[in-house]
Amino acid sequence: MLFVGDDWAEDHHDVEVQDAHGRAIRAARLLEGVDGMTRFHELVAGFLPVDAKPSDVLVCIETGRGSWVRALVAAGYQVYGVNPKQAARHRELLSLPGAKSDKADVYSLADMVRTGRHQLRQVAADSDLAEAVKVVARAHQTLIWERTRHTLRLRAALRDYFPAALVACQVLTLTGADALELLAKAPTPAAAAKLTVTQISAALKKARRRDIAAKATAIQQALRTEHLGQADVVAGAYAATVRVTVAVLQTLNTEIRTLEGQVEAYFGQHPDAEVYLSQPGIGVILGARVLAEFGDAAGRYADAKSRKNYAGTAPITRQSGKSKTVHARFIHNDRLVDALHMQAGAAILHDPGVRAYYDELRRREIGHNAALRQVGNRLVGILHGCLKTTSHYSQTTAWSHHTQPAAA
User: Fold this and answer.
1) Spatial separation of the C-alpha atoms in residues 332 and 119, rounded to whole Å
2) Is 44 in contact with 57 (CB distance < 8 Å)?
3) Which among 225, 228, 245, 260 would be 20 to 30 A from 127, CA to CA?
4) Alpha-carbon torsion 306, 309, 315, 321, what sign?
5) Is 295 left (phi over 0), alpha (psi -120 to 50) or beta?
6) What is the pTM of this model?
7) Measured between alpha carbons, how far is 354 from 21 in angstroms, rounded to an integer?
8) Residue 37 contacts by C-beta under 8 Å, 6 or more apart in sequence?
9) Pair 236, 188: CB distance under 8 Å
10) Hey, what's the signal peptide range on this chain (predicted)?
11) Can you tell me the mean pLDDT for 144-149?
């Protein structure tokens, strides 16, 4: 077998090939792209016997995604994507003084896969459709996060020079099309005070609001109330920044709706979509996010516990002597944890079995967030079973162990 360490950068890869005894056979710097991958194949093939298979080559690299990694997996190599923190700890074992260089890093990666591959997770290739779902689902979520950031900046600016606008927006949503249109039309207190009920009603009607007359009157009154403000020149400067932020938010709203359609289209084509949609608390967008982060490679998760550990919902136990504590996992996939938290929050509102489990946790004086985390952990296990058997969610099957004692 051959063991290859791959220290990647944006435009090149430093690689080192080791034999079964840890001796460095060859080291090279390969360019990113087709030419570099061709040289990688030639480099490895030069040290393999004629009857060897690509799976006899084990590659260790500090990433589990990207076109380079997918090309390695497609070629049949065993690829292990390691966390940079894992690689740093192994490097400390080999160099106690803490010396670091590209040559030492690539040697450490090759040695790591040679001596500790049984403790590493092999990269499993997802289907092309799952990769497509991941691309659009992550882009959609990123735009939503960006909209939240710009909304907070807009709120902070309005609080500083135009607090009456925030009062008026209590009737609406600050990121709504009508609120943004009114702010774009009248970003200063003086201009907003001149808005007529007709102008406000037109914006509300365009956004398809209900009870337009009452809301337009309430908004006009809020905009014309006295408030602590800034000097006109300062208010004008704030208004210039608000116009830009409003324009960004309007663009984000449009593109989020566009990407939402793409998420639905790609997710609907996946063969596991119906299984995900059958889960409590999961709709199309959440289902796409969970599928994107879990992937669909067969055998990636040996059991439900492995999936829970990756999801970050399973707790961590720390025990030393007579001390034993249980903690939440703080190192996790943020996107997946966010999606599972939202799923748990929706599931307790619509599924009686999930709600009963949540109420049981709360009766044990477990906090709301901790209870949602445990609910999410249970839902991940249920999802794993459904995907393994290609079956839809069944409330009776999922929660029978909770309901049987009560029935007895």
Assistant:
1) 18
2) yes
3) 260
4) positive
5) left
6) 0.84
7) 53
8) 30, 68, 71
9) yes
10) none
11) 96
pLDDT digits (tens, 9 = 90+) for 185-237: 899 998 988 999 999 999 898 888 888 899 899 889 888 888 888 888 999 99
| The residue type at 69 | V
Among 247-261, 276-290, 312-326, 393-407, which is the least confidently predicted range? 393-407
Residue 116 to residues 83, 128, 171, 296, Cα–Cα distance (Å)? 14, 30, 60, 26
d(CA 47, CA 16): 12
List Cβ neighbours of 264 (8 Å cut-off, separation of 6 or more). 284, 285, 288
- CB of 402 closer than 8 Å to CB of 356: yes
Give φ, ψ of 4 to 5 degrees.
-120, 130
The phi and psi torsions of 59 (rounded to 5 degrees) equal -115, 135
Cα–Cα dist 253/250, whole Å:
5
Three-state secondary structure call for residue 357 = helix
Structure tokens at 97: 């003084």
